[in-house]
């Protein structure tokens, strides 16, 4: 609970205070959020029930889609409700819960993207050893470790948030609770906490991005020795992965790797990775992937026929 009982709830300022823009925000999110849920559910169901998508890559994609749904659900429904209500109030406990969920599923997304890159690296650079390295048990253990890592990261964020005393203004200049906007409201010197925040979230974002970019560079470099057909298929998969990585990590690095200053553009950048990327992932992974498209067609035509 907060150190100072005077603040038990916060008031969200949302993305904009302009009533016309608020209507636009509502319409955009009303398209994006259900689109995100439906698109990712389609991928989850297709992978679950399709025999042709049994490889580790689709095993990880299953969890990426699951993380996408949860990640966007931590912010979008609340934002939609706030746009419609005149008083955008969130209790202290709800706010802390949102911080926890945001970082849990955000970190999970990062770890799954790393696993997908590792899977592509082994498949392309060590093809003969691929079946033994990426066994089912190994993939399951890696996913469990990803969940544990995400949970540890999230608990760290929460422990930082719980240290903050709030005794003054309770206006959060954002559409969701995160540590940056909360740090601005704390009635204490937040320099050290911000340093811890940057060294946790910032380090995870930057080092993961660097790791992913290096691995894809190595993968693309090793494609020289492959046949034209193999090269084309691998390139298609890797470019879709690289697109997702840049779209997700660009905004994350912008938000989490800098001193405690907030910019007006922060909220828009946050929309990009909390709502935009989860919406685009299904499109990128299905439109660029013939296997997924064929499996979907087969599965749904069988469902409709029966």
From TrEMBL:
Transmembrane annotation, as ranges: 24-45, 57-76, 96-117, 138-156, 201-223, 235-256, 268-287
Domain G-protein coupled receptors family 1 profile: 39-285
Alphabetic keyword roster: Cell membrane, G-protein coupled receptor, Membrane, Olfaction, Receptor, Sensory transduction, Transducer, Transmembrane, Transmembrane helix
Membrane topology value: Multi-pass membrane protein
Compartments it resides in: Cell membrane; Membrane
Signal sequence, start to end: none
Keyword 4Fe-4S applies: no
Domain of life: Eukaryota
Family listed: Belongs to the G-protein coupled receptor 1 family.
Name recorded for this polypeptide: Olfactory receptor
Organism of origin: Echinops telfairi
Source species taxonomy: Eukaryota, Metazoa, Chordata, Craniata, Vertebrata
